[in-house]
Write a structure and sequence with these properties.
This protein is mainly alpha-helical and about 120 residues long. The chain is built from six helices and two strands. It is elongated, with a radius of gyration of 15 Å. It has a two-stranded antiparallel sheet with strand order 1-2. The protein has one domain.
């Protein structure tokens, strides 16, 4: 990925997720992710690259890994920001660290194990 995609769910989605509108929210959010070509970050098809790479005999941080982590965090921000009740969002999301770990993903999209950086 050449550039990072920032999701502005407040302006790009006409609804926020609440207890009664899951199907409509899922259709809109999925279309947004597909449109920006980042759906693979939440359904697990865009696998995490290795954390390090060997360049000229020396292990260095893999730029693809750094980009993958940053993009996943931006998607996570988009998912969290599109909940109707911020108190509910905090309760459900306080311990997650990647877009694939968000509770709605377990219902929305099948999720493999999160990236372990290896």
């Amino acid at each position: 990925m050449d550039k990072l995609i920032v999701l502005n769910a407040g302006s790009q989605l006409s609804i926020k997720l609440d207890g009664d509108n899951y199907l409509a929210w899922r259709i809109q959010f999925s279309a947004l992710l597909v449109g920006f070509d980042v759906f693979g970050y939440v359904d697990g098809s865009n696998l995490c690259p290795a954390k390090t790479q060997v360049v000229a005999g020396s292990a260095t941080t893999n730029p693809a890994y750094t980009c993958w982590i940053r993009q996943g965090q931006l998607i996570l921000h988009g998912i969290v920001s599109c909940h109707y009740n911020s108190g509910d969002t905090f309760r459900y999301c306080q311990n997650i660290s990647t877009s694939m770990e968000h509770p709605s993903n377990h219902v929305c999209w099948p999720i493999p194990s999160p990236c372990d950086g290896t």
